[in-house]
Design goal:
Blueprint: E1 16-22, H1 30-39, E2 47-53, E3 63-68, H2 71-74, H3 77-82, E4 87-93, E5 108-112, E6 115-125, H4 128-138, H5 147-159, H6 165-173, E7 178-185, E8 189-194, E9 203-207, E10 210-214, H7 217-222, E11 226-230, E12 235-240, E13 248-253, E14 262-263, H8 265-270, E15 276-277, E16 280-281, H9 282-296, E17 303-306, H10 312-322, E18 330-332, H11 345-355, E19 356-358, H12 360-363, E20 367-372, H13 379-390, E21 395-400, H14 422-425, H15 428-435, E22 439-442, H16 448-452, E23 457-458, H17 460-463
Parallel strand pairs: 14-23, 17-20, 20-21, 21-22
Antiparallel strand pairs: 1-4, 1-10, 2-3, 2-4, 5-6, 6-7, 7-8, 8-12, 9-10, 9-11, 12-13, 15-16, 18-19
Helix pairs in contact: 4-5, 5-6, 9-10
Length: about 475
């Protein structure tokens, strides 16, 4: 068998997070957006940015601050004070299309003949290349334009000949292929757009007289807001001032046939466990996955343990269903950087050991059921199994609360090719041997419905059935 060792970290990367807020005139929204982005930090740690404007100010007066690093590293108190205005958008990014560089940080803010806009984007536009070629021919885009800039240029092109920004967004959306959630700030309006399949999440919320859009409900609730509802697949929601104290919310649908396909990995890994996406609790979905794993596998063991953080709820479900005691076997150091950015194999290995340590008194002499949300490349799981054995675990049985990851994602998850997916090149038995486990079992494809009920899913990464 060929070597399975890979030098890249064994986790999917968290796409991006978008946030937008429209408050009454005279308010300042930058601090609220800042805290919204803090609540979405798990979705992207490479860069962060905020753009704000004033609905009663000059039409081109957009103020933007963005940079590389965590939200708390990019913004100082003085930065937030300088970002004055009652309407704004924010973004946290992990690069999927375009490299990790300041030039690709969001928001994208532009002035044009009819005004200005700022745009933040989660997802991937599959046909951005052909759209960019057409824009380059028109003299708009340049060779290095990101897909977010391409989106902005598409909207601007339509706005010149449209009666409103909403009409321009609708016309531009008809040309887009892929999964996306957009929040767009024009001089007087805040617009949320979700792709027609609902692949990417987007939630509408409210706090007092202010309205907000967020990738996850948890960010809205963290700000003391109330979740109104999920933006529907293919919906364009516009928040605007009609002269009174409270803004007006209007809705329109992108024309065309609707076939919903919600990303299953939001429930398996990406989203915070306290979020609710499309009326499905992320926490309950993960507990249900653990229960399904236990029903399919009656392995004898002494304890069930979960890999922090997204494996913990599934471990709870497994323990409840199997009546095997749930134990806390790991201490997680939350102050260690992400291991995938370390430059050598040894440094990556050390980073995993610094991030996680095993409680010897919990696992010594025990038969352990180890629950994690996924195995992408196998490197981190191998190290975790080794750590359990080093601390005296008698047996380690790995259970994964998702099916084998076999196919790449084209909608904004950073999996470039099947060649980097361990399950696409090796059998379950081979993977089990490589990671050093006694047994290995995955969640069955037919059990995905046990997680989310009858919610239509995009599970192309498991079954090669792409919605677009």
């Amino acid at each position: 068998m060929e070597s399975i060792k890979n030098t890249i970290d064994d986790k999917l990367h968290e796409e991006c997070g978008v946030f937008g807020l429209y408050a009454p005139a005279g308010s300042d929204v930058s601090k609220e957006i800042y805290y919204g982005l803090i609540s979405l930090q798990h979705r992207g740690q490479e860069s962060a940015g905020i753009s704000v404007s004033d609905t009663e100010g000059p039409m081109g007066n957009i103020r933007t601050k963005k940079g590389m690093g965590l939200v708390s590293e990019v913004f100082s108190r003085d930065d937030l004070s300088a970002l004055s205005g009652n309407i704004g958008v924010g973004h946290v990014r992990y690069s999927t299309t375009g490299g990790s560089s300041p030039e690709n940080a969001q928001p994208i803010a532009m002035n044009y003949i009819k005004g200005s806009l700022a745009l933040v984007h989660n997802g991937n536009i599959m046909n951005s290349g052909e759209l960019k070629e057409a824009q380059m021919y028109r003299g708009q885009a340049h060779y290095t334009s990101s897909d977010t800039e391409v989106l902005a240029y598409e909207i601007i092109s339509e706005r010149v000949a449209s009666g409103s920004i909403e009409e321009a967004v609708e016309k531009a959306a008809l040309r887009l292929k892929g999964g996306y959630a957009l929040v767009i700030m024009s001089p007087r309006k805040l617009i949320g757009v979700r792709d027609p399949f609902g692949i990417k999440p987007l939630v509408l919320g409210k706090k007092d007289e202010a309205y907000m859009f967020s990738s996850e409900s948890a960010a809205i609730k963290a700000l003391g807001g109330t979740v109104i509802r999920d933006v529907k697949p293919g919906e364009i929601v516009t928040v605007s001032d009609v002269g009174g104290k409270e803004a007006q919310v209007c809705s329109a649908m992108i024309p065309g046939e609707k076939k919903e396909a919600h990303c299953i990995f939001e429930y398996i890994y990406f989203a915070r466990s306290d979020s609710v996406i499309d009326n499905v609790s992320v926490y309950e979905a993960r507990v249900n996955a653990g229960r399904a794993l236990a029903r399919a596998s009656r392995t004898q063991a002494d304890i069930v343990v979960g890999v922090p953080d997204s494996g913990l709820a599934a471990a709870e479900g497994y323990a409840k269903e199997s009546n095997i005691p749930l134990a806390c076997a790991f201490h997680k150091n939350s102050y260690v950087g992400r291991s995938f950015i370390k430059p050598t194999d040894e440094q990556r290995r050390m980073a995993v050991h610094m991030k996680l340590s095993v409680h010897e008194d919990v696992v010594k002499g025990k038969r352990v059921i180890l629950i994690d949300d996924s195995i992408v490349r196998g490197t981190t799981m191998r190290q975790i199994v080794e750590m359990l054995r080093e601390e005296g675990a008698a047996e380690v049985h790995v259970r994964v609360s998702s099916p084998p990851f076999l196919f790449p994602c084209y909608y904004g998850t950073d999996v470039p090719s099947s060649g980097q997916l361990i399950a696409s090149r090796h059998s379950t038995q081979e993977i089990c041997k490589s990671i050093g486990a006694d047994t290995l079992e995955y969640l069955r494809l037919e059990d995905l419905s046990a997680m989310v009920g009858d919610l239509p899913l995009c599970a192309a990464c498991f079954n090669d059935q792409y919605p677009v």
